[in-house]
Each structure stands twice: as structure tokens, then as C-alpha cells.
Recover the amino acids of this structure.
């Protein structure tokens, strides 16, 4: 099978109707396409079978995770070049994302389809990579199913996350004074910004929903003197957080629970932080989430909801979760437009006082995480699996580009459970946040 790369380039251009933007290197060592840029490496023709049996994002993801597909050169540049060709730009519709691949069914492209079949080899569907989450039972966002989804993402080893996140162990968008700042400084500044937005004071009681490895509750207790409760559905996160808290001598002021927000019964709290957790809640449960947090706050208490948002679509019923994200990264996760999030918080009774969009900050954060992963690649693959490390590299790099290109955003929404008196407790010019 001589010159597989040339045949694939010609086939891709015939189907796409445009020059293929990156160089291809095939399993037979042949190469084709523009020189001097990133190279799409097809290590095994099994990758083509994956696309034939699962045209679109899932087939591509399986090829990447299994190592059948790779990128040599600048991963960000390659993803940017390929994004608009291999799937439709509108990643929030039910329309087929790999329209180009599905187009092979058209009569005028039957010859191209036969060529792809010949290149792919034996017409047998390859087994999905072990890292893919396939079996899920029961309705969305029950207590049990949410716990299983969280475990899939977070219980992959604290040592792995330490390599990626660095000493801060904060897995959410940092807040950068400048691109030259360190990741640790930017994460500390983000935690402090949240504390100031919440107007935390000594002796107050803070709830951190989705507390991760405990960084927010530690910062709030150390710097602002609060008593804090952090909740997570990840056993590994809870174990790590409790150890950090004990080492800091703060076990008498911070409690970490493996608990769902729907199970909390010891309200009220003076303030609630929810940092990168609400993406897991889902459309069907978001009103319940907002109402539950409202009920957990005392009158006058503040909520800081830090949440990734997607762009709105004309018909919101067409929204669907990306196959790659759903199967490999955040099972059952769903994004909402920031306007809908604000509306649902208001419908629950909150007064929304401030919305700050910080998507450029998340792009910087993700690029730092990717750099950390690449720097420690061999160890990261050993701690989890090569496939799992490839999942994280792809999703973080692609997400960085999505934030930079305004395909998704991230927002901090400050809301108050304003009492009947109308006294919100928010100063006239408080956006300076202390």
C-alpha cells in the first residue's frame, strides 16, 4: 500500500472540497501535504476504521486516546487548523459534527468511500480504548450517577493532578495579573478575589461546594479566619484535603465531607463558594441547585458561583454535549449560557450583583497545565495510563483554544440572598473588592 499519505490527502480534499491544512504522515512512512507546519501522524490504519465505524468526534477521539493518531509539532496550531474542517464549528447542535466524513454516503463520493475502505483494511470495529466511559445506568444527575461521574474524572490519582496543577492543587481558572505571572500566584489571587467578593470575615461560616483538594477552604480559613465546610464527591480529593488541613493545624476550623450539596442539613452559612462545580449539575437539576444554595444561606449571605459557560444557540433544545468530553473527560457535564445561569439564580430568589467574565484567564491557565503535563509526561502516563494522559492533553489544549476564540467562557457571578429589608450589604462601589 504505497503512498497512503498521498491517497489520504487526496481523499480528504475531495470530501472536504478544500486543501487539507496540515501535513499527513501515514503508517507506511509516506508523507503528503504542506511542509513546515504541524504533522498529523496516522500510526495505524486502525484509526481509519475507527472513523468509519464512528464518523465524527468520537471516532477521532478514540484514535487519539489509543495512540493511533498523533500530532507532531505545535498541537495548538494543528487543532486550530483542523477544527473547522473535521467537524462543524457549532459544537452545540445535534447536527452531525463530522459532516465531511458522513458525506461519504453521498452517491458522488462512492469512489472515495471505497478508497477509504481499502485504506482502512479489515472492516472490523476496533475496541474502544479502556479510558472510555461507556456504561451509565439510570436517569441523569441522580445522587449515585453524579458520584460515579465525579469519580471517573477526579479519582485518577492525586499524584497525577499534582503534576498538572502544581503546588496550588486548584483545578479551576486562575486570575492573572499578567501573562508573566506564575501559576501559583494567579491561583492564589483567584482564591483571594473570591474571598473578597464574598466579604469574608473572621468567625463566619463558609461552605465550599465542590471543594476539590481543599485549597479554597484553606485560604479562607488562613487569611480570613472563617470556619469552613468543604464538600466533594471524590474520595481521593477528600483524603488529600484532610491531610493538608491536618498539616496546617486547621482541623478544628475546616471540615471536609464526601457529600452532595443536596444532602446538607446543617445550614445556615454566611457565604457559599462554588468554583468549577456547577458544570456538573446539568440543565435538569440547575433550578434545584440554585434553590438549594439559596436555602443554605442566611439572609444577607453571599454566593460566588464560578462557572464555565457556552455560547447560546438559536434553539436551545438542540444543545448536546461533545462526545469526547462526555465519554472521556466530564461524563454528564453540561454547559449553559451565562444569561441562563443568571436567570436561574434570580428565579431561585438571589439578587445578582456582579458578573465578571474571565475567559482569557482560563486560556492562560490551561496552557500552563498543558505545559506541566508535557514536562512530566512519562511520569503522568505511568501514574494513570498513556491513554489517560493523552485525554488530558487533548482536552486541555482544545479548551484553551476554545476560550481564546470565544467559543466558551467562564464567569464569576456574585449573588446575595437579600433580606426583606432590601439591605444587600454590598457597598456602593464595592467592585474594587477591598
Amino acid at each position: 500500500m504505497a503512498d497512503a499519505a498521498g491517497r489520504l490527502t487526496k481523499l480528504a480534499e475531495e470530501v472536504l472540497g478544500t486543501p487539507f491544512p496540515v501535513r499527513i504522515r501515514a503508517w507506511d512512512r509516506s508523507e503528503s501535504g504542506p511542509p513546515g507546519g504541524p504533522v498529523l501522524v496516522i500510526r495505524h490504519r486502525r484509526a481509519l476504521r475507527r472513523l468509519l465505524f464512528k464518523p465524527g468526534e468520537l471516532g477521532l477521539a478514540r484514535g487519539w486516546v489509543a495512540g493511533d493518531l498523533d500530532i507532531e509539532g505545535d498541537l495548538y496550531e494543528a487543532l486550530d487548523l483542523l477544527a473547522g474542517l473535521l467537524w462543524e464549528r457549532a459544537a452545540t447542535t445535534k447536527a452531525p459534527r463530522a459532516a465531511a466524513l458522513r458525506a461519504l454516503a453521498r452517491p458522488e463520493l462512492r469512489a472515495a468511500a471505497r478508497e477509504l475502505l481499502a485504506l482502512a483494511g479489515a472492516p472490523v470495529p476496533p475496541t474502544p480504548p479502556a479510558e472510555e466511559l461507556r456504561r451509565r445506568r439510570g436517569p441523569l444527575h441522580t445522587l449515585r450517577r453524579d458520584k460515579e461521574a465525579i469519580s471517573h474524572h477526579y479519582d485518577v490519582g492525586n499524584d497525577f493532578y499534582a503534576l498538572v496543577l502544581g503546588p496550588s492543587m486548584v483545578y479551576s481558572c486562575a486570575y492573572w495579573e499578567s501573562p508573566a505571572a506564575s501559576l501559583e500566584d494567579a491561583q492564589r489571587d483567584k482564591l483571594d478575589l473570591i474571598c473578597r467578593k464574598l466579604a469574608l470575615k473572621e468567625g463566619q461560616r463558609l461552605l465550599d461546594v465542590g471543594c476539590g483538594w481543599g485549597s479554597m477552604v484553606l485560604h479562607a480559613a488562613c487569611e480570613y479566619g472563617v470556619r469552613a465546610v468543604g464538600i466533594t464527591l471524590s474520595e481521593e480529593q477528600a483524603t488529600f484535603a484532610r491531610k493538608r488541613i491536618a498539616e496546617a493545624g486547621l482541623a478544628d476550623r475546616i471540615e471536609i465531607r464526601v457529600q452532595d450539596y443536596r444532602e446538607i442539613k446543617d445550614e445556615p452559612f454566611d457565604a457559599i463558594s462554588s468554583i468549577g462545580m456547577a458544570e456538573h449539575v446539568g440543565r435538569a437539576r440547575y433550578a434545584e441547585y440554585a434553590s438549594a444554595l439559596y436555602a443554605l444561606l442566611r439572609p444577607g449571605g453571599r454566593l460566588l458561583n464560578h462557572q464555565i459557560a457556552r455560547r447560546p444557540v438559536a434553539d436551545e433544545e438542540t444543545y448536546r454535549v461533545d462526545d469526547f468530553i462526555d465519554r472521556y473527560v466530564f461524563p454528564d457535564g453540561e454547559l449553559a449560557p451565562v444569561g441562563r445561569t443568571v436567570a436561574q439564580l434570580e428565579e431561585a430568589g438571589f439578587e445578582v450583583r456582579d458578573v465578571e467574565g474571565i475567559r482569557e484567564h482560563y486560556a492562560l491557565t490551561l496552557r500552563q497545565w498543558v505545559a506541566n503535563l508535557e514536562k512530566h509526561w512519562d511520569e503522568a502516563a505511568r501514574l494513570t495510563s498513556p491513554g489517560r494522559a493523552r485525554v488530558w492533553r487533548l482536552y486541555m489544549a482544545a479548551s484553551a483554544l476554545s476560550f481564546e476564540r470565544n467559543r466558551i467562557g467562564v464567569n464569576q457571578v456574585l449573588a446575595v440572598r437579600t433580606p426583606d429589608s432590601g439591605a444587600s450589604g454590598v457597598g456602593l462601589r464595592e467592585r474594587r473588592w477591598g
The chain has 17 helices and eleven strands. The CA atoms of residues 355 and 413 lie 5 Å apart. The longest helix spans residues 386-404.
